[in-house]
Design goal:
alpha/beta; Rossmann fold; 8-stranded mixed sheet; 12 helices; about 15% strand
Length: about 500
């Protein structure tokens, strides 16, 4: 059997080559598409590869020589004399008595005897038999090759399927291994993060412990220094008026360091040589200068309203103070709008709405820092807008962060920190520390009628350097509101019987 492989552009060209080379009895065993060789073959059209076969026993009929070829019958030529054909007349047909005249020119030639019938060539018969046998063999071979081809394809499909399953299993195994590695790495990262967090917490606790120890040590040193200073000052202040002034200020809950500074200033001006009245008059001047001039709300003529926001701890009287200021400006002929963000305290909104109805004012309630700008815009036709905030304990960090966001969003023209005058000296320190996020603010003290001492007012001004604004002493609206009276505060500080 002859087997040939042909690579052509298409199937038509391949079949033509097979037919020319092997004959029309050749069998196509397989065909497939192949890529041309070389780098440029990647960009060319794929070729067709055909495998064909033919049996060796099949002998193509040999071509006859020229002399052995049968001569074709001559074509009919009207101008060429044709051989005469013998006319057979049946016996029953009468012979004509007279025949037409003969023409020698067109006389028919005698008819040649018909050729004897050709007998079959024994050689040709054997060849035909061989050809028939070969055709049968070729058909059997073709059927067998088809079966073999189908079996091969089935085996290839089975092998391919097995390989695909094995590849899939290998891929799953690798994926499982990678996932296990990833989980292990994640667990290791979590462990390291937990270890770092534990170290950080331990370090933070250690830092807090050291800070607390340092603070305790500093307070101890401060107490010791105060005791030493007291002893030194007691020795330096030999006059009774200075000692009396010192005791009075201490009873009014004034900061010890501030007391010493006041006494130093008086001593520098010859206070140790002065009598009691002169010492107290000089102390009044020093205290008045320390308190400074009060700064109440001053409306500036602009195209937009003046916005003031009031902040402070719980229970210091912010809402009542805001109503007093609103009533004061309303009675002076100014248009006032009110905004409350105190939605946490029970009846706080109703309290402000009651004041607004009495004074015939507009009031708007906001529930989040994001609403404050819109509320201010809705009251832009007023001369003054007062914003009431919820009382926030400086120890409640979450609510305190909300307050910071509200102050930032409001961006008021003035900020007022409201403090009750009956707050202790230590509590005032904490309040001022926690409200230090306010950039610029003024101090407003309430409940002077309930205060045992006015020392906290002097302490707040000393610790912050911020100006005073208003003071309140009672619940009457608006009668119990005053611009901070520095002379009265100083008199309260120096009067030993005022408490």
């Amino acid at each position: 059997m002859k087997i040939r492989r042909y690579t052509c552009k298409d199937m038509q060209e391949a079949l033509l080559k097979v037919k020319i080379d092997l004959g029309s009895e050749a069998v196509i065993m397989s065909s497939k598409k192949v890529k041309p060789k070389g780098f440029l073959g990647l960009f060319k059209k794929p070729l067709i590869e055909v495998v064909a076969a033919i049996d060796d026993e099949y002998a193509r009929p040999a071509r006859l020589n020229y002399n052995q070829r049968p001569m074709p019958a001559p074509a009919y030529d009207p101008y060429r004399p044709q051989p005469a054909q013998e006319r057979y007349v049946p016996v029953s047909e009468p012979v004509p008595e007279q025949m037409p005249p003969r023409n020698d020119r067109f006389m028919e030639r005698p008819v040649e005897k018909a050729a004897a019938p050709m007998t079959e060539n024994p050689v040709q018969t054997r060849e035909n038999q061989k050809i028939s046998e070969l055709e049968g063999k070729v058909k059997n071979l073709e059927s067998m090759l088809n079966k073999i081809y189908q079996a091969v394809q089935s085996n290839k499909a089975a092998e391919t399927e097995g390989e695909d399953k094995e590849t899939a299993k290998e891929a799953e195994r690798q994926a499982a291994a990678k996932e296990a590695e990833r989980q292990a790495a994640a667990k290791e990262a979590e462990r390291q993060a937990a270890a770092k967090e534990a170290e950080r917490l331990a370090a933070a606790k250690e830092t807090e412990r050291q800070a607390a120890a340092k603070e305790v040590l500093e307070k101890a040193v401060e107490i010791i220094e105060e005791i030493e200073d007291d002893n030194n000052n007691s020795a330096a202040i030999s006059k009774k008026p200075l000692l009396e002034l010192r005791n009075i200020l201490f009873e009014k809950d004034v900061e010890p360091k501030l007391i010493e500074k006041i006494l130093e200033k008086i001593t520098e001006r010859g206070g140790h040589k002065l009598d009691r009245d002169e010492v107290f008059n000089l102390a009044a001047k020093v205290l008045t200068a320390s308190l400074g001039e009060p700064e109440p709300i001053k409306l500036v003529e602009k195209n937009k309203p003046h916005v003031a926001i009031f902040l402070g701890p719980t229970g210091v009287g912010k809402t009542t103070t805001l109503a007093k200021i609103a009533a004061d400006f309303t009675f002076r002929g100014k248009k006032v709008g009110l905004i409350t963000a105190d939605t946490y305290r029970i009846a706080a909104v109703e309290q402000l709405k009651t004041y607004a109805e009495i004074l015939n004012l507009q009031v708007t309630v906001v529930y989040s820092p994001g609403e404050i700008k819109e509320a201010i815009e809705s009251l832009k036709d007023n001369d003054l807008i007062l914003i009431d905030t919820a009382g926030r304990s400086h120890k409640d960090k979450q609510h305190f962060d909300e307050l910071k966001a509200l102050v930032s969003a409001a961006d008021a023209d003035e900020n007022y920190l409201v403090i009750s005058s009956n707050t202790s000296r230590i509590a005032v320190r904490e309040i001022l520390e926690y409200y230090a996020f306010i950039k610029n603010y003024k101090l407003l003290f309430t409940k002077l009628d309930e205060s045992p001492a006015a020392g906290v007012i002097l302490n707040a001004v000393y610790l912050t350097g911020k100006p005073l604004s208003y003071t309140t002493a009672g619940q009457s609206v608006p009668d119990d509101l005053d611009i901070a009276n520095v002379e009265q505060i100083v008199a309260s500080l120096l009067n030993e019987n005022s408490d």
